[in-house]
Structures are given as structure tokens and as C-alpha cells.
Amino acid sequence: MKKILSLFIVALLAIAFVSCKKDYTCKCNYTSTYSIYGYDYLTDTIVVTGTNTKTSTTEKTFNNSKKKAESDCKSEGYSTVDEDGNTEKMDCTIQ
Known about the structure:
The chain is of the alpha+beta class. It is built from two helices and four strands; from the N terminus they run H-E-E-H-E-E.
């Protein structure tokens, strides 16, 4: 009887664990901004004449617990700035 009860409890725990996992969609918004340079012949210098911005969106699916999916999704993001002030940023959130 103890063995059957133990197996039943293990089965319930396994079902609970599997049911906690589900698909979570991670949506990432990418933005990059780069300076556009030109040459000013009057001052004989290189000048910034504008900026170029690119954006895109990607999605990724995580099959996990919500907490783990949120953590994995957040780790997909990043933000960088180079020596010229050009930026790249990826913000990711669970939908």
C-alpha cells in the first residue's frame, strides 16, 4: 500500500512539473543608430550630417516555466555604444 501511495505521489508531482512548462513568446525589438559623416570643405573637417536608424522585431519561443522563460528572454537583450557614439540595443520581453 505504501508503494502504491508513493508511486501515486510521484506521478502527481511529475504531472504538476510538466504542466508548469508551457510556451512563452519572447519578443525582441532591435534598434541601431549610426552617425552619417560628411566632409566640410570650408572648415576642412569631418562632420556629422545625420543619423541612420534601423529597427526590427524578432520573436522566439521558450518552453519553460514562466520565471525561467522571463529570465531566458531578458538575457537575449543587450545594449552597446561604440567609441563614435553609435548604438545597438535589443530589448526583449515575454508577451
